[in-house]
Amino acid sequence: MSGSGGGGGVGPDTPTLACEDLVIKAQIASPKAAVVSKLKVGDALEVAVQTIGGAAVVVLLSKGKLAGGLATPNLSRLRECIEGGTMYQAKITAISGAQINVTVEAV
User: Fold this and answer.
1) Domain of 67?
2) Distance (Å, whole) CA 76 – CA 1
3) pTM, to two decimals
């Protein structure tokens, strides 16, 4: 018996989006109530990589204070770009109770 040819992964001809062109629409994950309660639509947050519990994690900061993380499937690419020197900011696009939507773009 023989197996199938495999596949299903990202192939060599799948283009990788340039860090400067990466735009992510996401929600703030694990929002910190004391920080996010002061935010409003249009506010800009710093996007950074911090080491938490031994792992490199993408976080959102408001005036240097942790607002929360990001919930997006593009997280590893965003982390690679930040670690490579590209700076990003997250603009708040909508707030509905504890759900806060942001758009992350290079600055």
Assistant:
1) 19-106
2) 37
3) 0.81
